[in-house]
């Protein structure tokens, strides 16, 4: 699959954009007209830079408001088009995107549109230019890709073909099956965009909210299946108008974009096998397939001064397994819950979550897959006699370690203390979930990262009010719930840093654990009395049980699947801990209680 | 008019919110349930604080999903309601908002809903509580305020009335005229919200995009007219769910909110007079009416080192009129364009726009009006023998001077130089417009500020792409165009500061001025060659004219009303200048050229 991307997807100058696309591994780019118009570089300089970077220039776009006009307007449009054909010759681009007329069309007659496109095609032919006519979802007379194709058929000129854009097709719910009826050689170009399910006018939706494939709600795999079956073998190009991507660092956005196409190619390939498609013209690269993660291997907190974290873990019933034999790193465990406190090169650093270890069926395959999906490898820090661990950086900088699942616990534990784990029983059984705040510019990237590299599935997102604004929370989950990551966008005031993150531990007896913790002096996050009155009004709880909850600062929720008890520790630096008990199969995270936590944390830091 | 506001409109703790509401001058507040639930203060403490602050607690809200349910659910709902009535007694609140059921209703029968509300009313009566039943726009069976009123009529209980919410009525385009048919004593509460015209699902629109009256597109004046004519005389309360207000400083948001109600009361009063309403129960305060501003009196640039600004003004043909007789302030003029360079207490300060002077028909009345609209007065710095100028601070901190329009120019000019203006002729005639960037948290506030205090009218806003993201631009304009202010929201990376602002001068012969400026060594903002090629493709310009534009770095636009020529200087600190020529009645600001400017400025700051 030839990969391409429109320069409008990215921030920066045209040169910045080209460099970012090349670095991310794209084969080519579409030049968005305005990016060239505002550039001080000549067309020849842009052509040369692309060549130097190994990028093909696949499309010049967009040419607007051409067809369906009166003769005098047409003459001016042809003059305007010819100026652009000359420019395209200088750029070395042979395909132009022609959008269906939205503004100046006055004649809603296919024969007229076709004849006018044919005249444009005749002029284009003199410059060696091909025209890819596309139905915009809000075109004046032409908004359906099949309609655009009928006009192209009528135009009947070798230099006039069609462009298919998944947004314009799927946003209007046109059936993409008809793509297979278009002769592949008349599909001159294909643009892909995904979008979240939003009920708003299609123009605003298109101009502000498009996202890369896999980050939205469109079924692009089925779309791609039809495209491949049509015999199309040209560029598959991303054209994403997104207010956030426009503000984000272009190098990162380009990598996010490339990852989305690699993942889509894999999914398309699987889809085609499943639907029994035979030989196809388009080659679709595949990736090492790996199973879902099986559980949390460990969570790592980095801290200049480990003492406050040690105290919290002790109060929660964890046992120290000793320090690492070669690093300033110590291990605390309780049954299957493992926390590493890392003070290596951390002088003066406030405590914060620095790494997560996940058990995977095949660590080498998982790491290879992540790297092929453009994840950044984390330099290994192990010595010759130590366990070799695979790790990649998540979009927020957290290190994700991919650990071989081993019966009897991870081998690396032997590198701590006396090499044999000290028994550490207690009601905490494992890590239940990890909650990481994400920079607002990279939230969609994070969702795609965890989905594509680790096979976690996004759950419906929720918005939680806090005294500083709404917090958006998106859970990514393995199918059996053994791995759950909650990704948050914090209010703007944090600008992606300093917002506390947390590790939540699963517990078989929360009340008993809380009592032990009280005895050991744990600072619970205080829960207001009004909360318990409201809880009682909502659930009509047993008064004794309510008193227990209130005395211990425990939070409570209930749904059709069961009950949920949980509490939070106070925050140390940028990290706090939560302990949860699911009775027995409550699936949520106590979302109704999240505003209580956020308000209490606001007050505590106030 | 009794003013009230829901605590959910504001950020911070419940105490922060109450203090902000009191400081802004509200008579009362609605307690949003969740704000109380997350508060560590007891209901009694909240009641006492409100009393101490002189605020009435007007409404407890919302109570959800009560009516239209099976008998067993009703029993639980009544238990839940009674717990809240007890709580309201402790708070000293006698009215509860009951929203039409969205989640648990299974019976779409008005008689059932009415009977159930009646039973709720009977319980409420025992606690001295009144129920204000409101149709949510997305209610399961009840979404129309007239329908809610019919159910209240059927319920026929003195403690059951209705609540009217302008959002739920106007978002669904229900006709508010029917308000007049509801007996005033059965309207227990009124909530007001405005909203921009957005084509999205009504729930998302309501939860994220509500704004204060006058900041959106709803006709709240007509709505208020019906309400006043109904005889209603209770609180008029703001309930605004807005993602941005939730993140903004609560003191400012509360002032913005209060300003919106003061302005709405004035407009309603005028509307009632115009429509011939007689005596009404509700008293509507009025404000000193003032005419629109007649023009720009001056623009002030504050700079630690005035030299770079002096040079720019000299290059643009301005003449220095000398320094102020008592301050480190100098005046530069060219015909009716006056620029003050202020270096008073400005050591080390980068140049930036600090003040704008506007000619108004009655400066004292205008200042009085602005202060009654909660504008902050700027401390006067004049001495006994100097002109006394009225000034208020705009939401972005710019000082707005309200100057008495005088034939023969402003009197304060005599305080500069030798007291008599030096002739300063040239093609620049006046200030055409001023472009100020606004903090993203206070954009709606700024629009309302300029509309309500100065009578400027918002024009349709535009979004302009830049290499760092979209810039939203909103022009506020006097009806004859003599005063035009463009308010911009800069990309997030600026976070409201450091984004360049500018003063644009009107000019009768831009080409001549540009030539003079070239001769005087002006650094023009460079315009790329690609721009001129595109301009030619779009407009088919005379080649000689195109060469003139290109040689002088002039930008060009054309529409049905005429032509627009303009150029920009390079940026000094946070300010630059633009010169524009309108041929003859072009009304815009060269929006198609804005991306060229933004890209060139991005490169220049590289």
TrEMBL record, chains A, B:
| Top-level enzyme category | lyase
Q: Where is the signal peptide?
A: none
List positions binding a divalent metal cation: 134, 165, 191, 239
- A Gene Ontology MF term for this entry? isomerase activity
Asked if the keyword Isomerase belongs to this entry, the reply reads yes
Residues annotated for Mg(2+) binding in this entry: 433, 502, 578
Domain of life, per lineage = Bacteria
- Identify the keywords attached in UniProt to this record, alphabetized: Carbohydrate metabolism, Isomerase, Lyase, Metal-binding
| Gene3D superfamilies reported for this sequence | 2,3-Dihydroxybiphenyl 1,2-Dioxygenase, domain 1, Divalent-metal-dependent TIM barrel enzymes
EC number(s) of the enzyme? 4.2.1.118
The keyword Transferase is assigned to this record: no
Family matches, as PROSITE patterns: VOC
Pathway info: Aromatic compound metabolism; 3,4-dihydroxybenzoate biosynthesis
Which InterPro entries does the protein's record reference? DSD, Glyas_Bleomycin-R_OHBP_Dase, Glyas_Fos-R_dOase_dom, IolE/XylAMocC-like, VOC_core, Xyl_isomerase-like_sf, Xyl_isomerase-like_TIM-brl
Which family would the database say this protein is a member of? Belongs to the bacterial two-domain DSD family.
Query: Which PANTHER family does its entry note?
Result: HYDROXYPYRUVATE ISOMERASE, XYLOSE ISOMERASE-LIKE TIM BARREL DOMAIN-CONTAINING PROTEIN
What this protein is reported to do is described as: Catalyzes the conversion of 3-dehydroshikimate to protocatechuate (3,4-dihydroxybenzoate), a common intermediate of quinate and shikimate degradation pathways.
Q: Which HAMAP family match?
A: DSD (MF_02238)
Instruction: Give the protein's recorded name.
Output: 3-dehydroshikimate dehydratase
Species, as recorded: Arthrobacter koreensis
């Amino acid at each position: 699959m030839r990969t391409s991307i429109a320069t409008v997807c990215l921030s920066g100058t045209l040169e910045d954009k080209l460099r970012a696309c090349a670095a991310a591994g794209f084969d080519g780019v579409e030049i968005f007209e305005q990016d060239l118009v505002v550039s001080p570089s000549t067309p020849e300089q842009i052509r040369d830079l692309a060549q130097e970077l190994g990028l093909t220039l696949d499309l010049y776009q967009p040419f607007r408001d051409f067809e369906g006009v009166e003769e005098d307007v047409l003459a001016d449009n042809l003059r305007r088009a010819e100026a652009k054909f000359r420019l395209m010759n200088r750029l070395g681009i042979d395909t132009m995107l022609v959008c269906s007329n939205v503004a100046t069309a006055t004649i809603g007659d296919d024969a007229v549109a076709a004849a006018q496109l044919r005249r444009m095609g005749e002029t284009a032919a003199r410059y060696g230019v091909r025209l890819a006519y596309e139905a915009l979802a809000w075109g004046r007379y032409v908004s359906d890709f099949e309609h655009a194709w009928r006009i192209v058929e009528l135009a009947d000129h070798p230099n006039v073909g069609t462009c298919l854009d998944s947004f314009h097709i799927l946003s209007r719910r046109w059936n993409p099956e008809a793509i297979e009826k278009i002769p592949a050689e008349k599909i001159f170009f294909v643009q892909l965009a995904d979008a979240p399910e939003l009920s708003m006018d299609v123009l605003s939706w298109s101009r502000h909210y498009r996202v890369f494939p896999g980050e939205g709600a469109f079924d692009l795999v089925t779309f791609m299946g039809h495209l491949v079956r049509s015999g199309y073998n040209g560029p598959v190009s991303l054209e994403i108008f997104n207010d956030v991507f426009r503000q984000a660092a272009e190098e990162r956005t380009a990598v996010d974009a490339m990852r989305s196409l690699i993942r889509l190619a894999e999914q398309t390939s699987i889809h085609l096998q499943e639907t029994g498609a035979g030989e196809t013209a388009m080659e679709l690269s595949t990736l090492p397939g790996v199973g879902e993660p099986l559980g949390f291997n460990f969570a790592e907190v980095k801290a200049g001064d480990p003492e406050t974290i040690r105290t919290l873990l002790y109060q929660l019933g964890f046992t120290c397994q000793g320090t690492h034999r070669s690093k300033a790193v110590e291990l605390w465990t309780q049954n299957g819950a493992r926390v590493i406190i890392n003070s290596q090169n951390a002088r003066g650093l406030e405590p914060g979550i620095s790494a997560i270890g996940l058990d995977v069926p095949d660590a080498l395959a998982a790491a290879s897959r992540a790297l092929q999906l453009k994840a950044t490898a984390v330099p290994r820090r192990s010595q010759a006699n130590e366990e070799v661990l695979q790790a990649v950086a998540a979009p927020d900088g957290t290190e994700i370690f991919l650990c071989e699942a081993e019966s009897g616990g991870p081998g690396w534990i032997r590198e701590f203390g006396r090499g044999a784990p000290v028994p550490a029983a207690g009601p905490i059984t494992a890590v239940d979930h990890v909650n990481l705040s994400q920079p607002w510019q990279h939230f969609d990237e994070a969702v795609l990262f965890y989905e594509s590299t680790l096979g976690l599935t996004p759950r419906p997102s929720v918005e939680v009010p806090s005294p500083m604004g709404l917090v958006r929370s998106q859970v990514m989950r393995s199918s059996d719930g053994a791995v759950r990551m909650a990704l948050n966008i914090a209010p703007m005031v944090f600008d992606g840093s300093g917002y506390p993150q947390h590790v939540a531990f699963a517990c078989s007896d929360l009340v008993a654990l809380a009592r032990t913790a009280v005895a050991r002096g744990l600072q619970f996050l205080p829960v207001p009395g009004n909360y318990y009155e409201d809880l009682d009004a909502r659930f009509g709880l047993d008064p004794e049980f309510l008193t227990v909850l209130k005395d211990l600062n425990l939070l409570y929720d209930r749904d059709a699947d069961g009950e949920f008890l949980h509490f939070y520790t106070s925050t140390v630096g940028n990290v706090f801990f939560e302990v949860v008990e699911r009775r027995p199969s409550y699936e949520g995270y106590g979302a109704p209680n999240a505003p209580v936590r956020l308000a209490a944390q606001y007050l505590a830091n106030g």
